[in-house]
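INPUT
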Amino acid sequence: GENVEQHPSTLSVQEGDSAVIKCTYSDSASNYFPWYKQELGKGPQLIIDIRSNVGEKKDQRIAVTLNKTAKHFSLHITETQPEDSAVYFCAAPSGYSTLTFGKGTMLLVSP
Amino acid sequence: DVKVTQSSRYLVKRTGEKVFLECVQDMDHENMFWYRQDPGLGLRLIYFSYDVKMKEKGDIPEGYSVSREKKERFSLILESASTNQTSMYLCASSFRGDQPQHFGDGTRLSIL
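OUTPUT
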């Protein structure tokens, strides 16, 4: 099955700095990579995803990059704000319908 | 917007009880999932269903069962609750395998 490693487990930045979270996956056939944000007391929410036919995707202050050769993908958040503080999860397909999730990164943005 | 609703936000039960967690989605999604979330372990898949009355075991099915009698509803059952099943339980749904999963806000279950 798929194995997803996520780093770092915690990340502290100052407001306005950039934050980068990295994930690696094991199955070279994987072709869909979502990122979720989980705020306190809520379920994970999809914030961006990328498919294997593109190398980068942006949505305002967030971007995801994918390197299929190296089997890793990264989430980039620019100009961080306190409301970006949350737990972030990456995921990769582990079957036709299922996802394997990374263990999560707790991002803390200090004002 | 897709809405996934879990019936309880907090639940306290006793060891040995039979516990039902309910989940309803309103977008006619084919797939539904149950995860448990524990600190440092991320989200682990318990069971999923790709159609009415169809179910597949996930990574940690022991001690759990599921029921999907209607497309919009997916139930997780703890046959005889134990303290090691104290956790946050998350339900999710998706249209098909390569589409995003949408999550409910979770049920925090305590087994005493």
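end of record. The CA atoms of residues 16 and 81 of chain B lie 5 Å apart.
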